[in-house]
Structure formats: structure tokens, C-alpha cells
Design a protein that fits this description.
Blueprint: H1 2-13, H2 16-35, H3 43-51, H4 54-74, H5 78-83, H6 88-120, H7 129-154, H8 158-181, E1 187-188, E2 192-193, H9 197-206, H10 211-215, H11 221-247
Antiparallel strand pairs: 1-2
């Protein structure tokens, strides 16, 4: 598997879009403390402000992971991984390690830079940010793994479009559910999570777009469970489907 990972990482370095994505994510996170007035004068304020747009960050990370994966099918390089006799599990794990992980790490490190800048602008310190950051990375990793595995299932650049479709479907679905139930199932003024009860936990766990709202909650068992269980469920669902598809060797 080591050779598969090295080969994929080498190809990634040749993708101009990958470096553009890296620079843009870093600039976006660095700009937040300086472009939102007195709202971001501490690490905690920066975290809250950045979480209000987490759906964008998750979608961009997932789109980039899907795009890089899709290029392998577009240029037909991924077909040789199967022809070389690699097992489906080996191929899937190599894609997660070489594509999903680095992409999530780029957004995460960019976010840490923003946290550091915001922390120096106020004497409040980091608060509980250091506890929430690993959970934030888990949400990012979930998004990029989804992008990789979904693209491996459809075996084309169409996976990139489907990643975007999921975000739209989740948003529309939550809006419809809010209208039917009479409850706000999304952000409440961007400051708190309006969903309550077991139904809210289920929605927060299933919906990738809700992870920002989840991370804005105080640290607690429910909040951690929603992030961790959402990650495990996402990986298992798409991982099993992609494994079955690859086992058929339908090329």
C-alpha cells in the first residue's frame, strides 16, 4: 500500500488546483479575525465565527477530495491500481490516506493559524478551543472521506457534483422539516443549536452540514457523540458500498 500512497501523493503535487486550494483556505482563515470587526477578538470568538461558515469549509474540502479522486478516473490512472492486483481494501485505504487526510489537514492547519492570530488579539487565552479542534478535524476528515469514497463509487468526476448535491439536499431537507415541525432545525441566529431532543441528535449525526452547529455547543457527551458517531457512520456506510463496488472489478 505504501507504493500506492506515494504514487497518489506524487500526482497530487502536480495538481495546480490542490495548491490553489491550500493557499485560498489559509488566506480565508487568516482573514476572518481582520474582516469581521470586533466580533473576532479572541480564539473563542474566532472559533464561533468560523463555525458559522463551516458548511462552506466542509463542502470545499469534500469537493477538493472528490476532484483529486475523480482525476484518477478521468485520466484512467486508477484502473491500473486494480490491474496491478491490489485488493479493494488496499486501494480504498490508500485513497483515504493520500487524498482525504492531506486535504482535511490543510483546512485544519489553516484554521489553527486563524486561532493563533485571534488568540494574540486578546488576553482571554484559548479556552476550550484545544478540546474542540480535534473534533473539528474529525468533521473535516469525515467530509473528505465522503468525497473520496463517493467518487470511487461512481468512478468519474461526477462525484464532485454529487458532493455539492448532498449539501444542497441536506439544506433543503432541513428547511422542509423545519416548516413541517414548526421548529428551527438549523442555526438559530448563528449562535446556538436550536434542535433539541433525540430527533435533533439523529439529524446532527446524519447531516454533515450540521457539524458546525454541533461544534458550537458546549463541550459535553452529546456533542462529542454527534461528531464521533457521525464520522464512524459516514465512513462505514460509504466504505462498505465502495468496497462492494470495487470487489466486482467492474472496469
Amino acid at each position: 500500500m505504501g507504493k500506492l500512497v506515494k504514487a497518489e501523493l506524487y500526482r497530487n503535487r502536480k495538481v495546480n488546483g490542490f495548491w490553489i486550494f491550500t493557499v485560498c483556505m489559509a488566506l480565508m482563515m487568516i482573514a476572518i479575525p481582520f474582516t469581521t470587526g470586533d466580533k473576532v477578538d479572541s480564539a473563542s470568538a474566532f472559533f464561533r465565527q468560523s463555525m458559522s461558515s463551516i458548511t462552506v469549509s466542509l463542502m470545499l474540502a469534500s469537493l477538493m477530495a472528490a476532484y483529486i479522486t475523480g482525476r484518477g478516473y478521468y485520466h484512467r490512472t486508477s484502473m491500473y491500481e486494480v490491474m496491478a492486483g491490489n485488493s479493494p481494501l488496499r486501494i480504498i485505504l490508500s485513497k483515504i490516506i493520500s487524498i482525504a487526510f492531506p486535504t482535511a489537514l490543510i483546512v485544519f492547519l489553516s484554521h489553527l493559524i486563524g486561532v493563533a492570530i485571534a488568540a494574540t488579539m486578546n488576553s482571554d487565552g484559548l479556552g476550550d478551543i484545544l478540546v474542540k479542534e480535534p473534533l473539528f478535524f474529525l468533521a473535516l476528515f469525515r467530509a473528505t472521506i465522503f468525497g473520496v469514497l463517493l467518487t470511487m463509487i461512481v468512478k468519474s468526476m461526477v462525484g464532485t457534483a454529487l458532493v455539492y448535491v448532498r449539501s444542497i439536499v441536506e439544506t433543503i431537507g432541513l428547511m422542509i422539516a423545519s416548516a413541517i415541525t414548526g421548529k428551527d432545525l438549523m442555526f438559530d441566529d448563528g449562535t446556538d443549536l436550536a434542535v433539541a431532543g433525540d430527533g435533533g441528535v439523529i439529524l446532527n449525526t446524519l447531516c454533515l452540514s450540521q457539524q458546525g452547529a454541533v461544534l458550537m455547543q458546549p463541550i459535553g457527551g452529546t456533542m462529542i457523540a454527534e461528531v464521533v458517531l457521525g464520522f464512524v457512520g459516514e465512513v462505514l456506510l460509504w466504505g462498505i458500498i465502495s468496497y462492494i463496488i470495487y470487489s466486482r472489478k467492474d472496469y
